[in-house]
C-alpha cells in the first residue's frame, strides 16, 4: 500500500510542475504591443505581393513572423464581425481581387485614407495563395 501512495504523490508533483510551467511560460507570457513594435522590414506593397506570388516559399522565409512597414494604396476597407480589414489590391484572381489584407488594431481605421497612399505596419502571417496577410496592423 505504501508504493501506491508514493506513486500518487509522484503523479501529483508531476501534475503540479506541468501546471506551474504552463502558467509561467504560456498563460502569463507578456503580449507584444504591436503599436510600439520595431519594424523589421520596410517594403512597397506591390513588391511584397509580387514576391509572394513569384516564390511563396522564399517570401515566407523572408517575411513571415516579421513586423513589416508596407507602403501602398488602400483600395477598400472591409468589416467582418469586430474586425476591420484594409485591402491593397494588386491583381484580379480566380476568386476576386487579390493583394494584401491588413487586420487593423482597434481604432486604426479612422487614420486610413482610402484611394490614397498609406503606410501600414503589421505582423506578417503568410500567404493564402491569393492574399498576403498582415495582422495587428496600424497606420503610420
In short:
This protein has 140 residues and is α/β, with parallel strands linked by helices. Helices cover 31% and strands 40% of the residues.
Strand content: 35-45%
Main beta sheet: 7 strands, mixed
Order of helices and strands: HEHHEEEEEE
> What oligomeric state do the depicted chains represent?
single chain
The number of helical elements comes to: 3
Ends apart, CA distance between termini: 68 Å
Count of discrete structural domains: 2
User: What characteristic shape results from the CA principal axes?
Assistant: elongated
Roughly how many Å is the radius of gyration?
22 Å
- Ranges where pLDDT stays below 50 over 5 or more residues in a row are none
Structural class: alpha/beta
CATH class of the largest domain: Mainly Beta
CATH homologous superfamily identity of the largest domain: Nucleic acid-binding proteins
Number of E strands: 7
Strand order of the largest sheet: 1-2-6-7-5-4-3
**Amount of helix:** 25-40%
What does the average pLDDT come to? Answer: 92
Fill in the keyword field for this structure:
140 residues, alpha/beta, OB fold (Dihydrolipoamide Acetyltransferase, E2P), 2 domains, 7-stranded mixed beta sheet, 7 strands, 31% helix
